[in-house]
Amino acid sequence: MPWRWRARGKKVLVCDADLGLANVDITLGLKPQYDLQHVLSGERTLDEIVIEGPQGVGVIPAASGIARMLELSAAERLEMGLAFTALSERYDLVLLDTAAGIGQDVISFLSGANHVIVVVCDEPTSLTDAYALIKVSASERKVRRFQIVANKVKGSAHGLQVYKKLLNATDQFLDVNLSYLGAVPTDHRMLESLRERTPVVSLYPRTQASVAIRDIAASLEERFNLDFESDGFAALFQKNDMS
User: Fold this and answer.
1) What is the dihedral sign for C-alpha 143, 149, 153, 156?
2) Which domain covers residue 22, as residue numbers?
3) Is residue 217 included in any domain, yes or no?
4) Residue 239 within a domain
5) What CATH number does residue 67 fall under?
6) Are 18 and 67 members of one domain?
7) pLDDT score of 240
8) Are residues 111 and 76 in the same domain?
């Protein structure tokens, strides 16, 4: 989706927020010299570690640096929040790519975001994990609105079916609002693009997965108006306890 927005003239920044398996740079075929660890050690500024990805998308490589954020003091957290906020003001959209699961780091990132997108497959474990993530986010951080994307589906009808399975569960037991963004079909071109370390929308722009991703990005842009006012990354560091 970042490449869809970039193609529409939006400046996009992606931050790899997976503490355990940070791999956005690997997926995109990038070889960063520096990451967040160098910022936290004072060797580099945040501006200096941003690298340019496909179609001009900015990428903040995390590596082990993102885990160090859980140990920041209040003063360090404030300083980092201000640095992230200043950087994010140069972009129209900032995406946080979090890990799967319900770790406190993940929940903290979600609670500091303007919009939360949950990607789910039609598998019991995936549906259960998605439900748990929504439940914990709502109960611990008062996150109430979630956008759902069904992944690896057979078609549009199957994607809607996956969404309804999750919706039925949350409607019964949780006070949250789920919205359906769309679905990405199973597409062998996705695996090929991963092997090539190039976004599928760039490598195979006409394949089913690429068309679906562009549709989802367009839906988000229309639904939310990406020019919203935001508290920026400061919300992740000043308003939430990541410890």
Assistant:
1) positive
2) 1-99
3) no
4) no
5) 3.40.50.300
6) yes
7) 47
8) no
Q: Tell whether 240 is covered by a domain.
A: no
Query: What are the distances in angstroms from CA 210 to CA 11, 81, 204, 214, 215?
Result: 20, 34, 7, 6, 9
Distance CA 213, CA 161 (A): 18
Which phi and psi angles does 64 have, rounded to 5°? -80, -10
pLDDT of residue 243: 46
Q: Which helix (H) or strand (E) holds 15?
A: strand 12-17
What is the residue type of 100? A
Same domain for 95 and 60:
yes
- Residue 85 tokens read as 């906020």
Output the pLDDT for position 117.
93
Question: Could you count the other beta carbons within 10 Å of the beta carbon of residue 233?
Answer: 26
The answer to whether the CB of 27 falls within 8 A of the CB of 197 is yes
> 131-176, pLDDT tens digit by residue?
999 999 999 888 899 999 999 999 999 999 999 999 999 999 999 9
Q: Tell me how far apart the alpha carbons of residues 70 and 212 are, in angstroms, rounded to a whole number.
A: 35
Distances (CA, A) of 41 to 9, 45, 47, 86, 208: 34, 10, 14, 19, 44
Residues 4 and 93 in one domain: yes
Length of the chain: 243
What is this structure's pTM? 0.81
